[in-house]
């Protein structure tokens, strides 16, 4: 009888917490909603990286022009996350050496970004797998090995808890004046 009462109480509490009558947004989000929030957090980390890399590249490749530096920064961020499209794939082929150098320099010049990059990569793989169900996100873990080889990934540990990841992302966005 006690187990049935506990189960009834737990189910009632779950329904209450997720009821739209009591909250604008469920207090316990679905796995898909949570994954989408995490991807938004990853996108903010990507924006921070883009901003930092653009500034670094403007110092290193000023003679190439601002547009080149922005393209290089965008492609570098995509390379970190192994998330290319046709445009960045083509640019990557032409500028692979500069991009590799930029990633390594990122870890050396901005060691404070290693933990956010590590957390964002872990969340990126996990959330994309949750949204797509595609095992490629877990079967091809070269994104982690590449990041470790380039000195921007902290080995060991687990993916961060959602609340702590989003708090870190918010602090990072404020620090780098993203919003």
Q: What's the overall average pLDDT, rounded?
A: 86
Query: Can you tell me the number of structural domains?
Result: 1
Would you count the extended β strands for me? 0
Written as H for each helix and E for each strand, in order along the chain, the element string is HHHHHHHH
Number of helices: 8
Determine Rg (CA atoms, Å).
20 Å
Outline the low-pLDDT stretches.
1-17, 19-23
| Structural class assignment | mainly alpha
Beta-strand content estimate: under 5%
Head-to-tail CA distance between termini? 53 Å
Q: Which sheet architecture does the biggest sheet show?
A: none
Measured as a percent range, the helix fraction is: over 70%
Bulk shape: globular
Topology of helices and strands:
Elements: H1 2-18, H2 31-60, H3 66-80, H4 86-109, H5 114-132, H6 136-139, H7 142-149, H8 162-175
Descriptors:
single chain, 179 residues, mainly alpha, 8 helices, 0% strand, globular, disordered N terminus
Structure explained in plain terms:
The chain has 179 residues and is mainly α. It has one domain. Helix content is 73%, strand content 0%. The chain contains eight helices and no strands. Helix 2 packs across helix 3 (66-80), helix 2 (31-60) runs parallel beside helix 8 and helix 3 crosses helix 4 (86-109). The longest helix is centred in the first third of the chain and has 30 residues, at 31-60. It is globular, with a radius of gyration of 20 Å. The relative contact order is 0.13.
């Amino acid at each position: 009888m006690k187990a049935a009462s506990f189960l009834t109480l737990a189910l009632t509490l779950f329904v209450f917490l997720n009821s739209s009558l009591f909250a604008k947004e469920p207090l316990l989000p679905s796995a898909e909603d949570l994954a989408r929030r995490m991807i938004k957090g990853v996108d903010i980390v990507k924006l921070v990286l883009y901003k930092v890399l653009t500034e670094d590249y403007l110092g290193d490749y000023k003679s190439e022009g601002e547009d080149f530096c922005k393209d290089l920064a965008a492609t570098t961020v995509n390379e970190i996350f192994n998330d290319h499209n046709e445009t960045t794939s083509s640019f990557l082929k032409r500028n692979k050496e500069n991009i590799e150098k930029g990633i390594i320099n990122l870890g050396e010049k901005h060691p404070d970004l290693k933990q956010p990059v590590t957390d964002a990569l872990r969340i990126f793989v996990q959330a994309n797998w949750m949204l797509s169900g595609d095992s490629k996100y877990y079967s091809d873990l070269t994104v982690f090995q590449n990041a470790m080889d380039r000195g921007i990934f902290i080995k060991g540990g687990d993916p961060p808890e959602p609340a702590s990841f989003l708090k870190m992302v918010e602090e990072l966005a404020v620090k780098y004046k993203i919003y």
